[in-house]
Amino acid sequence: MKILIFGLPGSGKTTLAEPLAKLLGGVHINADEVRKQYEGHDMSKWDFSLEGRIKQANRMRHLADGIVKAGKIAVADFVCPTKEAREQFAPDFTVWMDTIPEGRFEDTNRMFEPPERHDIDYHVAKWFEDTHTQLVPIIERYMKKQNTTPIGYVAYRLEEENV
């Protein structure tokens, strides 16, 4: 299963993704870390054009697909500012971090396309300290309904419950 947590810079994507991935026994993929691997550590040279963002969505998809093929849950957090970028990533479950009216980068604010309600599975309009905990049963219900529970998640839950 591929989970996308997206929203403006500073909306809490990584703050949600890290503990959520741990609770799910999944793998967290952070866009900034991926960009460092592909584009270097000098952020001033990173490509934030529309084409660069589509390229990043494809990188993130490639990494997440590998995690899913290994039987794990991929929890990816990145801005993913356009509908096209979100479609390129092709998530199974989408969380929109709609917690701030605008981010710290004006070019990203201009490019960002708020999603249609039917294009997201969970909408975080206000941050709570336990948002990640609240999200777990929702994702579990989704997996059960879709009959897509990864074997790695089943094994993780069994281990956690000491069965």
Structure characteristics:
globular; five-stranded parallel sheet; 163 residues; Rossmann fold
Write structural notes for this entry.
It is a single chain. This protein has 163 residues and is an alpha/beta fold. The chain has 7 helices and 5 strands, in the order βαβααβαβαβαα. It has helices at 13-24, 31-39, 50-69, 83-89, 106-111, 131-146, 151-160; strands spanning 2-7, 27-30, 74-77, 93-97, 122-124. Helix 5 links the parallel strand 4 (93-97) and strand 5. Helix 1 packs across helix 6 and helix 3 (50-69) runs parallel beside helix 4 (83-89). The protein is globular and about 45 Å long.
Q: Cα distance, first to last residue?
A: 23 Å
CATH overall fold name: Rossmann fold
Would you list the SSEs in sequence order as H and E? Answer: EHEHHEHEHEHH
CATH superfamily placement: P-loop containing nucleotide triphosphate hydrolases
- Contiguous uncertain segments of 5+ residues: none
Please give the order of strands in the largest beta sheet: 2-3-1-4-5
What is the number of E strands?
Answer: 5
Q: Count of DSSP helices?
A: 7
CATH architecture: 3-Layer(aba) Sandwich
Helix content: 40-55%
CATH class: Alpha Beta
Q: Report the sheet-strand fraction.
A: 5-15%
Q: Which class best fits the helix and strand makeup?
A: alpha/beta
